Amino acid sequence: MEIKLPQNELMTVSQSQQLAIGQPAATAWDDYVRAQPYGHLLQLSRWGELKSQFGWDARIIALSDEHGIQAGALALLQRLPAGAGQLAYVPMGAYASDSSLYPRLWQAIRRETGAAFLKLEPGHNTALSASDLSQAGFRPSPQTIQPPTTIVIDISGDDSAIMRRMNQGTRRKIRKSRAGPIVYREGERRDLQQCSSLMLQTGERNAFGVHSPDYYEAVYDLFMPRYGTLLLAEHDDDLLAAIMVFALGDTAWYLYGASSRAQGNLYATYGIQWAAIEWAQQRGCRYYDLWGVPDFDVATLEAQFKSRKDGLWGVYGFKRGWGGQVTRTLGTWDLAWNPLVYAAYRAALKFRR
User: Fold this and answer.
1) In terms of pLDDT, which residue wins out, 195 or 309?
2) Does residue 5 sit within a domain?
3) How confident is the model at residue 313, as a pLDDT?
4) What is the dihedral of CA 64, 65, 70, 71, to 10 degrees?
5) Which of 241, 256, 344, 353 is the most exposed place for a label (fewest CB within 10 A)?
6) What are the backbone angles phi and psi of residue 223, rounded to the nearest 5°?
């Protein structure tokens, strides 16, 4: 395992052990992420490469000894307005072989980035708790980047076992979509232009933002086919649905998707998700993360989803039928290293709202 560590940057852990702060090679870091119980796609070095093409700087910061990486995180850096420095953002991660190393990791991120504050989204990492973060000086953030609440489907077992967990309507639509004339296939790079156009139509129809065509091209180049797939649903040369799905370890994530209103009676959006579940199973995944529903408890979601269509409410009605579990991550937390800059940041968010 190749690790590039400046020899003059050492952090003492005990009399018998020292940890060096540095940036490991991408291959070493990715091996480390894959070995974590909650290793996430958004912590891979390729996610940093992707975001580096679209306004962020990326840096992997690790604490290592002679045995390898002991703690670390992929941090994304972005300049703040008016020359106020930069923020550091850790998406769905921050790992440590021992929980006692986390305070040292926050210190290393501060030292290596010089950021005014750290925005952390730990995801489902059970090695951290809200109490741990509060004791380290973090506070719940008023601004989330990744959706904190999602629906995760258990895709273990055979087809009948998975479908038994779904509601009747979803089962019926999947079967109809798979028995009909739709062709499901893995897409190629040349399909991206048509997919991007469908993404734009879907975003305009449902009032949510979508990425530019060159963003999806970069995603494809960096992650396909090692970590993901582009799936298409077509009928008579018309593209009815397209999704990008990714897998790492025992989990697959549905991150990007688009659909047409044409031929709605064929239920392409159901058939293409079933194709994604089959792909995830072939990759050895047990869980399929539908990635994002409104950030409320189940009782509120069930009480309001029929009447609300704003934000992520429109997709909750679709996702709820797949028999998954509504799951909330630890959410988003901020650690202010420059209190004045952080106060200005919070004031700006409040003014914008």
Assistant:
1) 195
2) no
3) 87
4) -30
5) 353
6) -115, -20
Are both 19 and 138 inside the same structural domain?
Answer: yes
Q: Does position 25 have pLDDT exceeding 60, yes or no? A: yes
Instruction: Give the per-residue pLDDT at 209.
Output: 81
Q: For residue range 256-302, list pLDDT tens digits in order.
A: 999 998 888 899 999 999 999 999 999 999 999 999 999 999 999 99
Q: What are the start-end ranges of the E strands in 163-227?
A: 183-186
What CATH code is carried by the domain that includes residue 45?
3.40.630.30
Q: Domain containing 121: what range?
A: 10-144+331-352
> Residue 17: what pLDDT?
59
Do 246 and 113 lie in one domain? The reply is no
Residues 6 or more apart from 86 whose CB is under 8 A from it?
77, 78, 79, 80, 113, 114, 115, 116
User: Which has the closest alpha carbon to 191: 223, 222, 229?
Assistant: 229
Whether 184 and 205 share a structural domain: yes
Through-space distance between the first and last CA atoms of the chain, rounded to whole angstroms: 47
Average pLDDT over residues 227-232: 98
Tokens of 270: 């159901």
pLDDT of res. 188:
97
**Cα separations in angstroms, 164 against 67, 160, 221, 281:** 46, 6, 37, 17
Tokens of 162: 């998975």
State whether 205 and 285 are in the same domain: yes
